[in-house]
């Protein structure tokens, strides 16, 4: 039996909107309905930002350290910083002599409690101030003598649903979740009687998608041994 031989199926924004309206039992052709659905899709993507880490939006960033400067801006599309380290070389110059040192993430209270935030030396901690445009503050303030580059893994925002002919900024495994999520969001405005059912479907799809989005690694389980006291 012949097969397609392709694995490139995807949905455009327009396809997602059509699928969602079909699931709530409404055929929509008006420009207002399309704009309303695209707005709901962008709100859905924002809601996903509260659901945890999406691996396809994790990105390695870097910035050159400046001696005596503790705080550095990050791109506006960054939601949070997951891990950070300092390095002796920029990524483009990595070689066998490159040395990296992992930094410990601290919260606002711990960073605020540091009495002299401008004490210079080799940084060992970092604090992420999650404003609209986040910043990273290092302690100790870098002297940039040996370790010259800050490298960090960020979790970035999902790109907006732009043109109706654009592809959504997500992997294929999240397509079912996106369609059911948009149908749930639209039902709140157009088909309230279906909202509860569509919510259950959406949450079920989300659980499966997030579980599949995990990183598979080896797991080692060691039995715990108890020794009696001889009594």
- Tally the helices: what do you get? 5
H/E element sequence:
HHEEEEEHEEEEEHH
Going across the biggest sheet, name each strand in turn.
1-10-3-4
Mean pLDDT: 92
Structural class: alpha+beta
Poorly predicted regions are none
Q: Sheet bearing the most strands, described?
A: 4 strands, antiparallel
**Outline type:** elongated
Count of structural domains: 2
Compute the CA-based radius of gyration: 24 Å
Structure explained in plain terms:
With 231 residues, this protein is an alpha+beta fold. It has helices spanning 13-23, 31-48, 108-112, 175-190, 195-212, and strands at residues 58-64, 71-73, 78-87, 100-102, 104-105, 120-121, 125-129, 135-139, 141-142, 149-156. Strand 7 and strand 8 form a beta hairpin. It has two domains: 13-52 and 159-210, no CATH class; 55-156, no CATH class. It is elongated. Helix 1 packs across helix 4 and helix 4 (175-190) runs antiparallel to helix 5. Strands 1-10-3-4 form a four-stranded antiparallel β-sheet, with no helix packed on it. A four-stranded mixed β-sheet has the order 2-8-7-5, with no helix packed on it.
Task: Summarize, please.
The protein contains 5 helices and 10 strands; from the N terminus they run ααβββββαβββββαα.
Protein traits:
alpha+beta; 231 residues; single chain
SSE layout and pairing:
Blueprint: H1 13-23, H2 31-48, E1 58-64, E2 71-73, E3 78-87, E4 100-102, E5 104-105, H3 108-112, E6 120-121, E7 125-129, E8 135-139, E9 141-142, E10 149-156, H4 175-190, H5 195-212
Parallel strand pairs: 5-7, 6-9
Antiparallel strand pairs: 1-10, 2-8, 3-4, 3-10, 7-8
Helix pairs in contact: 1-4, 2-4, 4-5
